[in-house]
Amino acid sequence: MNRRDVLKLLTMAAAMPCAASEPTTRQPLGLVIHSYWIRREKPLDPEYSGVADPFAFLQTAAKIGATGIQTKVNGLEGVFLAKFREATERLGMYVEGTIALPKVEADVARFESEIVSSKAAGATVLRTVCMNGRRYEQFVSADQFQQFVEQSWMSLTLAEPIAAKHRVKLAVENHKDWRVEEMLGWLQRLGSEFVGVCLDTGNSIALLEDPHAVVEALAPWTVTTHLKDMAVAESEDGFLLSEVPLGDGFLDIPRIVATLRKSRAEIRLNLEMITRDPLRVPCLLPQYWATLSDLSGRELADALTRVRHYKHPRALPKTSSLSHLEQLRAEADNIARCLTYAKTNLA
C-alpha cells in the first residue's frame, strides 16, 4: 500500500456519513462483493467506480441502502482496521469477512493473522470455501475427489481451533463442491459451534439437488447466506443455470427466507447477484459423473424434470454480447431490482 492509497482510504473513512444523516432507507439485504463482479474487476467508467477496496464497497453499499457487506477485510492494515470498524458502526451496518482455509500446518499462522485482522475490522463471521471451482469441472476421477475430501477435512480441523480461540464463526459455502449429505457428514463429524454454513441458495442446483430441500437440510447449520434467485433452461448436454433478480427465477424466496429465519431469527441475508452469462451444467456428459457415480437415475430424472417444469419463459440473460458500459448498467440494475424486491417481500 503506497502513500497515495493511505491518503485515499483515510479521506474516504473521514467522509463517511453517520447513520442518522444517511438518507437512503435500509433494505433487509446485505451485499456480497461478487454482486459487483463486473464493477470490481473492470470499472472503467467513473459513474461505476467505487468497490475496489472495502471502504469504497462499504460506501457504495450504504448509498444504495444495503444493511451490510461481505468482502475481504483482512487485507487492511494497522489504523485502517479500526477506521473501517468505526465506519461500519457509524453507518449502522455490519461487515462479514472472507478468508481462505489453511491447507497445511505451516499455513495456520497466516490463517490466524487474517482472523485477528478481520475481527479488528468488525467481522465475527467469515465466509470461506473448501474449493473455488466446480466439482464437475475440477475433477476427472473419483480418486481426485477423494483427495479433495481428505484435504478439506485437514483444512477444517486446522481452522476450527483457531476460530474457537478467537470466537469467530467460519461459514463454509456450499460451492458446487459438496452435495448436502456430504456436507452434513463433515459438519456433524466436526461438531463445532464455530464452523457452520454460508448457504448459497442456488449452487446446489448444479449438483442436481432440489434447492428448497437443501435449504431445509442446511438451515440449522447456517451462519450466513448468499441469497439469490435462479433461472434454468434446457440444453443439449444438460441444462443452463443463471442468476436473475430476486422474484424473476423459480426459487420460492419468501419460503427460503422463512425457513432460514425459523432456524436462526437473526440470520443475515446477503445478496449475491452475479451478472454474467448462464453457467453450463453438462449433466448428460460422462465427465460430469466422474465424482457423482453414486447418484441414481431417479435423481438425474428429477433434476431434468425440474428444469423442464421451471424453464425460464424468456431467453436467459447474457452479458457477453453487451458493451462494457451496458454490462455495468445491467449489473447495477439487477442489484437495484433485488433490493426493491427485498423491501417489498422480505422486510
What can you see in these coordinates?
The protein is an alpha/beta fold. It has one domain (3-231, 243-276, 325-345): TIM Barrel. The protein contains 12 helices and 11 strands. The protein has an 8-stranded parallel beta sheet with strand order 7-6-5-4-3-2-1-10. It has a 3-stranded antiparallel beta sheet with strand order 8-9-11, covered by helices on one side. Helix 8 links the parallel strand 5 (169-173) and strand 6. The relative contact order is 0.13.
Could you give a quick summary of the protein structure above?
It contains twelve helices and eleven strands. It is an alpha/beta fold and 347 residues long.
What percentage of residues falls in helices of 4 or more residues? 40-55%
Largest sheet: 8 strands, parallel
How far is it from the N-terminal to the C-terminal residue, by CA?
40 Å
**What structural class should be given to the helix and strand makeup?**
alpha/beta
Total strand segments:
11
Number of helices: 12
Shape: globular
Kindly give the count of domains: 1
Mean pLDDT: 93
CATH class: Alpha Beta
Reading the helices and strands in chain order gives HEHHEHEHEHHEHEHEEEHEEHH
- Cα Rg: 20 Å
Q: Could you give me the name of the CATH homologous superfamily? A: Divalent-metal-dependent TIM barrel enzymes
Here the CATH topology equals TIM Barrel
Strand content: 5-15%
Which architecture name does CATH use? Alpha-Beta Barrel
Low-confidence stretches: 19-23
Strand order of the largest sheet: 7-6-5-4-3-2-1-10
